[in-house]
Write a structure and sequence with these properties.
This protein is of the alpha/beta class. The chain has one domain: TIM Barrel, CATH 3.20.20.70. Strands 3-4-6-10-11-13-14-15 form an eight-stranded parallel beta barrel, surrounded by six helices. The chain has a two-stranded antiparallel sheet with strand order 1-2. Strands 7-9 form a two-stranded parallel ribbon. Helix 3 runs parallel beside helix 5, helix 7 packs across helix 11 and helix 8 packs antiparallel against helix 9. The longest helix has 21 residues. It is globular and about 55 Å long.
Amino acid sequence: MNPLLFTPYQIKNLHFKNRVIRSSIGGRTSYYDGTVTSAFKNFEKRFAAHDVAGIISATISVNQSRTSPMEYPKLSDDCYIKPITAAIKAVHEYDCRYIIQIGDTGGATHTSLFSQDGDAKSSSTLFDLFYGYRNLHKAMTYEEIQLTIQEFANAARRVRETGADGVEITASKGYVIQQFLNPGINRRKDEYGGSRDNRFRLLEEIIIAAREQVGDDFPIGIRLSAADYNYLPLNIRLPLRFPLKHWYFGNTIEDNLYYAQKLKALGIDYLHIDKGYGFPNPKGNPGAFPIHEMKMFYNANRHLSAKAWWRAAIFNAVPDFILNPIANIGWGYVPAVSSDDAKRFKEEIGLPVISNGGYQDQDIMENTLQQGKADLLAMARPLLANVDLLQQFKQGSNSPAKPCTHCNRCIVRTANFPLGCYDQSRFSSLEEMEEQIMSWSATSDEQSID
């Protein structure tokens, strides 16, 4: 059996030297206005220098005011193009492709300097305890929807102008497009709600507008959830949505395969498949629920609304021995969590497929490719823990010497602290862990990539 992991792959005019993509992972690597710093360039360059075939950026905001968390990058204005261009040029020096993922958090906006009405904008008005900080998500007006479509289109044009190799539109993570796609969240009665076709309309119009901006030769991919699993993580979402199956589950894989067929007809070049609704969620981020990190995050934002205050108060008041098993309902590590679903999209839709989630061991990754479940594999946390993972594979290791423990501390801490691995069990000392964290956050253009 010939190994596939280190063989090239082509999507449109995108040539990947192997099958491993660094997935979307964000960090506080921008100024407060959303302009990327040299830390952004150094962060991305380090992955490129360690043999990944491509990098998908953090979700870069298309909206000028909705940026979450703060100090994350934006592409809501032409002024952001030039600094990102410098980072992409540095990545290209290592024969690594760079795809910019664009999105809008909508009502799931996590943080803000002050509480703002715009951070509540969503498909419908509802209460969601876990996602977003505003007391209620508020339904967008028709005019706000049209503005959002134009913001995505303008951002796609800017992506091409940065010199990036492609643009990926986020239709998962519980961000605004998924808030329209998901029948448990979207309760609208107009042309953007109700039937599957109506719920798909926002994404459809975004793609059409984006394609007009970037041209037919520029790759456009969609990050899409295979299925929504609204009931995970444990949450309170009101009012109930009838039929209850929509409120409880959201879109099934059959619904999303239907969307994927429509995406193919619109000329999408690839699908990036994950699972679940919202970020974080146990299907998309298999592993543990980071109790202490969530407490820190909630405490840092409790001033923004009554909901945020009560959420923090509950987490602080309930003892850990009670809170931990309840909060971890549904969480746990599942290798190659999206691979079987990705296979269905690959076989039934016929587009190139990236599978995301639960990859770290070489044999599992190779088997996924050999079985035709995906064309490319995307990972973030394991590469954050071991930037030289591919080099360890080439040296004969099946698993890294110090594997990622899937504790999920990194994905929550990044909202308030520098991006890095925060699992002290992987380090000989606290000082070693701090040194690793700060090395990722270096701002000097002369930062070592070793």
